[in-house]
Amino acid sequence: MYTNNSCPVITRMQNCQGNGRPDREYESYRWKPSQCDLPRFDAKKFLELMRGKTIAFIGDSVARNQMESLLCLLWQAILPLQVEVPRNQGNRRMHRYYFRSTSTKIVRMWSSWLVHQTPEAIDFAPEGVTKVHLDTPDENFMEFVPTFDVVVLSSGHWFAKQSVYVLNNEIVGGRLWWPDKSREAKINNIEAFGASVENIVASIVTHPNFTGLAILRSYSPSHYEGGAWDTGGSCTGKTRPLEPEQMVKNDNIDKMHEKQMTGFLRGIQKKSNKSKFVMMDITGVFSYRHDGHPGPFRSLDPNKRTQDCLHWCMPGPVDTWNELVLEIIRREYEGKKSSSS
To answer: What residues does the Trichome birefringence-like C-terminal domain cover (predicted)?
Structure first.
């Protein structure tokens, strides 16, 4: 529905064809659910459903990946042979694109963990190491939540980075940081992720001024082999999706997904406002798509040691996520329209 040449917002690291990737078959696979049909993305339909509304992608760099995919899908949306270039009205804090024909806004806000973080010293954790407050939502985006009609949340991968976990102003764990071996950490990074999900879901479903639609996109699977992103991990030469019998169990991805699901279910039970919250579970399906990452083609120099087996080529599998988002929005808004009429 677009190419790396037709969409100018593709980040260099996701522009696999522009970086010299020789194969293209990965662009053409579509996911077909076994019990329903997933319609092809209809840009005009999306903009009509979102007329006068704002959709916000909030989270890490995978959220940016999905937001840029949506922009590319919408870029040539309005009339055949007529390109509508959305206006960028954003700033460093909030990237905003505006489609004038339907007054639709596409927003992206950065939030590494979706919860509050601070570098200040706490107890035996010195200044400089990031403190992640698992029970406090990130105020940098929460103040804007009531202004959004649809919110798509993305997190998880930053829990692999160095950080200190704080609950009720008490240090309860850490990742790549725990200097005092005489103290026992109460939670690990996977449990910390689950706690953060529960908190952010609860914060949104109890927000007195949010009445929109929230979507939690489940943990995006990576496909590093032979190491991590910074220790020589690779996904070179993957040109087709995995077959079921080729799937190898990944304990870390499975546990992150499980804790995210548990956190979501716990958080949603606290609902007190008129919002709707949906879990969009992509983890299992996209575990097959080891062919969809940039790998060595994250830059024009394929000989670089560091590969990207986390983000997704554009065009590529990430576009299906926005087909799912459109279907969720369609069911929500068309359902409301039919019930009100």
So the answer is: 38-327
Non-local CB neighbours of 179 within 8 Å, separated by 6+ positions? 124
Share of the chain above pLDDT 70, in %: 93
Beta strand residue intervals within 156-282, DSSP E:
163-167, 170-175, 213-217, 276-280
Catalytic residue (choose from 42, 61, 254, 281) = 61
Q: In this structure, what is the dihedral angle of CA atoms 28, 29, 34, 39, given to the nearest 10 degrees?
A: -30
Q: Is 311 a catalytic residue?
A: yes
If you compute the radius of gyration of the chain from its CA atoms, what whole number of angstroms results? 20
Q: Which position among 138, 149, 308, 319 bears the catalytic label? A: 308
Tell how many helices (H) and how many strands (E) occur in the chain: 7, 11
Buried/exposed 290-313: b ≥16 CB within 10 Å, e otherwise? bbbbbbbbbbeebeeeebbbbbbb
pTM more than 0.85 = yes
Give per-residue pLDDT as tens, 248-299.
899 999 999 999 999 999 999 999 999 999 999 999 999 999 999 999 999 9
Contact present, 220 and 62 (Cβ < 8 Å): yes
Q: What is the pLDDT of residues 199-253, one digit of tens each?
A: 999 999 999 999 999 999 999 999 999 988 778 899 999 999 999 999 989 999 9
- Quick check: helix, strand or coil at residue 322? helix
Residue 308 annotated as catalytic: yes
Spot the catalytic one: 203, 222, 311, 319: 311
Q: How far is CA 123 from the centre of its chain?
A: 33
Secondary structure letter of residue 249 according to DSSP: -
- Whether the CB-CB separation of 215 and 150 falls below 8 Å is answered with yes
Nearest CA to 142 out of 203, 211, 215 is that of 203
218 is catalytic: no
Question: Any idea which residue has 């040691």 for tokens?
Answer: 305
Query: Distance between CA 65 and CA 319 in Å, rounded?
Result: 10
